[in-house]
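Archive entry. Fields below.
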Amino acid sequence: MGREGDAVKLDPADITDGESAQVTENIFDTLVTYRNSSTQIKPDLALSWSRSKNGEIWIFHLRHHVRFQDGTKFNAASVVFNFDQWMNPKDPYHKYGKFIYWQTMWGGFPGKVKKVQAIGKYTVKFTLSQPVAPFLKNLAMFCFAISSPPAVKKWKEDYFKHPVGTGPFKLVLWQRNERIVLDRNPYYWGEKPKIKRLIFVPIKDSTTRMLELERGDIDFMTGVNVEEVKILKKDPAVRVLAKPGMNIAYLAMNCEKPPFNQIAVRQAVRYAINIKKIVEKLYEGLAVPAVNPIPPMILGYNPRLKKFHYNPRKAKELLAKAGFPNGFSTTLWYPPISRQYIPDPKAVAEAMQADLRKVGIKVKLITYDWGSYLYKTEMGEHSMAILGWIGDNGDPDDFLYALLDKTNAVKPAQNIAFYTNEKVHRLLLQAQKIFNPEKRKILYQQAILIINQDSPWVPIAYADQIVAFNKKVKGFHLNPTGMLRFQNVEENP
Amino acid sequence: MTRYLMKRILLLIPTLLGVSILVFSIIHLIPGDPAVAMLGQHATPQAVARLKKQLGLNRPLYIQFGKFMEGVVTLNLGRSTQTNEPAFQEVLHHYPATIELAFTAMLIAIFFSFSLGVTAACFPNTWIDYAVNIFSLTGISMPIFWLGLLFLLLFASHWRLFPFSGRVFPGYIFPTPTHFYTLDSLLTGNFKIIKDVFGHLFLPSLTLSTIPLAILTKTIRGSLLDVLHQEYIRTAYAKGVGRWKVIWKHALKNALIPVVTVAGLQFGYLLGGAILTETVFGWPGIGRLVVEAVKARDYPVLQASVLIIAFTFVFINTFTDFIYAYTDPRIHYL
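PREDICTED_STRUCTURE:
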């Protein structure tokens, strides 16, 4: 399979990039996992689980007769060993990783997970410091996959080059920037993978990647450009799979900076930009114009939310009301590279610039290299900036709390609109602790209603995620998290 | 001759020292804190302080320089922040790919530029000369990534003669003790693998050869024409020596002096990593290693790669001077 780049590390707990996770996903298992095509939870290494009434204690009953790829038996002690390494700074093996995802998901070391104990050979007890509604969804993330304790102990800081899990494939060879070769794991507890060997090849140039797929040198490719979709769709030997992605692209208005501290101005910008036209023209039909701050597959999405249809006259009225009858000058930042949620950021920015000029807002376009762009927007140097988000685990908290809560409006901020609303904050905190999906949904819908009215963003689009593969490849499912699992894939001759 | 060689070798010492100072300065004089850059913007001050101590960045500049020079001499510039391998080892793993590529490209360039350049000089101002001229001008002005893609479209996609990218078909696994896949594949004795490795090498080296090929052709033509107009050549003709003998025996050796310089420099450039060619053909050489190291802010690897590239360039240059002295015994300098 050809993809944009090579993996950085192969220790799932210590990575943050998609290229690494694509590989570890096939070597490792987690306690619970997502269903093939959704973020619904199903058993993986844990067969069943229960939680206490207050939601602070969770008991997991583990699968028996599971072995790691090095032959070690999997049991409750292995789970405890892994969690201790990640969460406990005093653990002798903690120093060999940074465990950034642990910190982000649980809020520090140990964070919201107070204790993890083995209370039987195959039973593990988690004690949390507070109820965490997305607990299972978090545990299903690639970063909380279980490693073989003897392998971690043996390789120490070099474990990321010698990963050992319980998953369907095992690592055979990693030549950096050349290839990663995985073979079928003979010890695998589940249905054995149908393909014998799985090779990840970094092919940086997307045209080369596409040509190799067409020729049959590779069977599968990621990072398909919108323009390439048209070419590949004409190839009878290739199948293009495009499915709604768990993402959103948005234009954030910096609520700390005048004139965007006024709701009327922010709403005027929303009316002034013809999002429907931009998405139609620049996403080639591979996206849906966004209204909600979360994509439709996420709990709390409100299909009847008030839309800000393109209306330059209304925009002008609102601007006049806010004290800018003749408009104003400002800057609009756009990402320097294409992302899953925005294939051509510059073109989107230019279209917005043209629309805003019509209502008197003169916009200068600005961009930086990707690293600086993220840093500067996190530090709030922008007035308006285009950015996006790809959900990690399918929970609304991963979108709304991460991107629009006041806690995350502190520099360096993930909430780059620097939007703060007490009521939204209270609703989001409350929703974090409630397990009943119906009740959570109501809370999130209330929050979204307020956010929509306050308009810190111009939501742009929910883009499709796209992969392309040879028609010989059967049984592949695209998961909204973007993870690629080859366990059930088979290749017809 | 021996004295000249000794002098040239002694001159290497200050040159290499200068190069090392330059590489050291790049890291230390550019704005921004390397420790912060390596850890990312979310790093805590404690973590930054710890890393600074670990890298020795908190010590006075002259001590840091001393440490750095010690590292250069002992080939120990720290470990890659990404792979935790010694930085020099990381570079040495990627360098054979580039050397293999540059060497093949240079072979192609030298072979064809000689044929073309000499032919053009033998028939000046004829249609042959014009054709060679147009060819070399095109070669010089062609953007290499575009040419690479064009070759891919024609040779790999349309005619399916050569593979697309990488050094070997990903499914072929064989021991690679030297990291020179051409050698390693020969060692396996497996014809399928040998054919595949050489097939992978062809298109990228052809692409990479275009610029030195064009420049060398022009140089050979110009230089040979100059020599052919000199009086001793006229004398040779007057004595009744045949045309080809005059060209091959009397003219070409003298015409080679500027060609050797240009060829040496070009080879040096190619060894510096052909970033564009390596990117288009997915060639895991030193050019791509540098790009990846910059992206990942892997300072040790970056330092080691730049140092090795610079050193190679200096050595190639010195070697060129030796050939220079060999082709023209008059050269003694100083």
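CURATOR_NOTE: The CA atoms of residues 287 and 463 of chain A lie 4 Å apart.
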